Amino acid sequence: MILGRKQLLINGEWRDGGGKPIPVVNPATEEVIAEVANATKEDVDAAVQSARAAFEGPWAKVSARERGRLLWKLGEKLMEQADAIATLETQHNGKPIFESRQIEIPASVECLQYYAGWADKVHGETVPVKGNALVYTRREPLGVVAAIVPWNFPLMLAVWKVAPALAMGNTVILKPASQTPLTALELGRLALEVGFPPGVLNVITGSGSTTGQAIVEHPGIDKIAFTGDTSTGKGIMRSAAETIKHVTLELGGKSPNIVFADADIDAAVRGATVGIFYGKGEVCAAGSRLLVEASIKDEFMDKLAARAKKMSVGDPMDPKTRFGALSSKAHFERVLGYIETAKKEGAALVAGGQRADIGTGKGYFLQPTVFGNVTTDMTIAKEEIFGPVLACIEFADVEDAIAKANGTIYGLAAGLWTKDVKKAHYVASKLKAGTVWVNTYNVYDTAVSFGGYKQSGFGREMGMHALDYYTQLKSVWVDLN
Ligand code: NAP
Ligand code: MG
Questions:
Q1: How high is the pLDDT of residue 140?
Q2: pLDDT, tens digit (0-9, with 9 covering 90-100), for 207-242
Q3: Which residues pair with 389 in a beta bridge?
Q4: d(CA 113, ligand 2 centre) in Å
Q5: 111 catalytic, yes or no?
Q6: Residue 306's CB: how many other CB atoms inside 10 A?
Q7: Structural contact between residues 369 and 349, judged by C-beta atoms closer than 8 angstroms
Q8: pLDDT recorded at residue 340
Q9: Cβ atoms of 99 and 85 closer than 8 Å
């Protein structure tokens, strides 16, 4: 299906961008399905002016409760149009329609409505001080927030930022990834439909190196909320330093999933596969390093390989498909490159490793891939692959597991499998990660904050703690003498 040409949403109006339009490719069919505008520096400037004017003007006059009501309505509208928007999500990303329709859209709706509830529940305090003064605090919005998001959960990761930002009274400029811009544009359209004033949510498409960079450098933006690559995040922090912007970063991971010998082995095998293969492994928190206790390694690896081989790759638009196409050609080739490197470095390929064909001869489909006998010095044990490739490493005991689990630059998430309650809590306390899953993996809830330790970033998304990153505190002193 050809969706035509898409424009930028600035100040409540659709307009062309100044740059050369960017084609959007369906990774399952390799067809160009749409073209999106490519915002120039001037377009970014127009978006900032519109967001600033809305922030100072109409949006400032909207009550907190009304902001909440608008967010709630946006959630309702998104649910009403879930089928069409889920289809777009699958078309530009390659993920199964089951995931788009049954998981990602409902999670996005929940997030919008969760923060709708917070809009009128964040407020200041009075502070006892010495002397005769009334001191109170105000929780004020930051101003213009730019949300820059990647291609793996294009709509949901946008909502994780847009919802708390708007709930707290900020205005937003959203820049989706070039590969997956279509659902962010739909979010902007729906926001207008439900009555957000023009300029409160602007959606700017364009390439990271030009549009993204212009956003990061713009002095009129107060905060950058970024999800993406650790290396991009470093550059964003450097650029944002020039104008002391607030920055939150949700970056990459190489998350360990630790299986102790006393675990429920079949549950752990299922958890290991869900941990790496959900979302084609294009999940920042993917359990991409499986740490297995030496005494159960052989049994575990046999079961794991059998399960991975049974998983079938299919047409993302088929509701029965649970494993779709990788998101782009460049990414697909990069993942294949890691598979070759792993073989060369001596890892044992126990499942997958090849391009998968769904019968069309087209699309960036890869078999779910598992490597055994991986050692901590190998490339696939260290670098984020962001694809369906699992590196299995053995460990000797609890302390060895903790040391290996923490032995990366990342710290986004971790999983552990054991029936021993004491061991579970002890290991959970020692893992340097923002999320630890015990006897489960890859579960999320909009009420539970999520984010990184170490080079996986800082700041938190979801839950009440995300609100801290979209407000600033003012102390007001009133002399009573
Ligand atoms: P990316 O290359 O860093 O891109 C992310 C976003 O930043 C895209 O919108 C991109 O635009 C834009 N961008 C690129 N260069 C920029 C620049 N110089 N200035 C401003 N914006 C710029 O990341 P990706 O490859 O799309 O996504 C994969 C990464 O995201 C993985 O490392 C993954 O772990 C991480 N991730 C983290 C989380 C989390 O919550 N921690 C969640 C999901 C993904 P273009 O698309 O035009 O390049
Ligand atoms: Mg990239």
A1: 98
A2: 999 999 999 999 999 999 999 999 999 999 999 999
A3: 369
A4: 30
A5: no
A6: 12
A7: yes
A8: 98
A9: no
Amino acid (1-letter code) at residue 164: P
The two tokens of residue 444 are 């999320």
pLDDT at 96: 98
Note the ligand closest to the C-alpha atom of 232: 1
DSSP code at position 158: H
Active-site residue, 284 included? yes
Per annotation, catalytic residue among 99, 110, 284, 384? 284
- Ligand 1 pocket test target in 229, 326, 328, 409 with most atoms within 8 Å of CB: 229
Q: Which of 480, 474, 481 is nearest to 142 (CA)?
A: 474
Cα 152 to Cα 327: distance, rounded to the nearest angstrom: 8
Class of residue 344 by CB neighbours under 10 A (exposed 0-12, middle 13-18, buried 19+): exposed
CA–CA separation, 40 vs 47, rounded Å? 11
Give all domains of the chain, ordered by start, each with its CATH number.
5-251+456-477 (3.40.605.10), 256-445 (3.40.309.10)
Instruction: Render pLDDT for 3-45 as a digit per residue (tens, 0 to 9).
Output: 788 999 999 999 999 999 999 999 999 999 999 999 999 999 9
Give the strand order in the sheet containing 201-203. 13-15, 8-10, 201-203, 171-175, 144-148, 223-227, 246-250, 457-458
Q: Is 237 exposed, middle or buried (0-12, 13-18, 19+ CB in 10 A)?
A: middle
Question: What's CA 87's distance to the chain center, in Å?
Answer: 19
Query: How far is residue 423 CA from its own chain's centroid?
Result: 30
Whether 413 lines ligand 1, by a CB cut-off of 6 Å, is no
Q: Which of 157, 166, 335 is nearest to 251 (CA)?
A: 157
Rg, C-alpha atoms of the chain:
23
Ligand 1 pocket, residue 207 CB under 6 Å: yes
Q: How many residues are there in the chain?
A: 481
19 Cβ inside 6 Å of ligand 1: no
Residue 3: predicted pLDDT: 77
Q: Tell me which ligand sits closest to the C-alpha of residue 327.
A: 1
Pairwise CA distance, residues 223 & 372, whole Å: 43
Alpha carbon distance 396, 61 (integer Å): 61
Q: What share of the chain is helix, strand, coil (3-state, %, to 5)?
A: 40, 20, 35
Could you tell me which of 438, 465, 440, 439 has the C-alpha nearest to residue 450? 465
Collect the ranges in the chain with pLDDT lower than 70: 1-2
Q: How far are the Cα atoms of 94, 314, 322, 461 from residue 98, in angstroms, in the given order?
A: 11, 12, 7, 24
411-443 burial by CB neighbour count: b if 16+ within 10 A, else e?
bbbbbbbbeeeebbeebeebbbbbbbbbeebbe
- Bridge pairing between strands 22-26 and 31-36: antiparallel
User: pLDDT value at position 4?
Assistant: 86
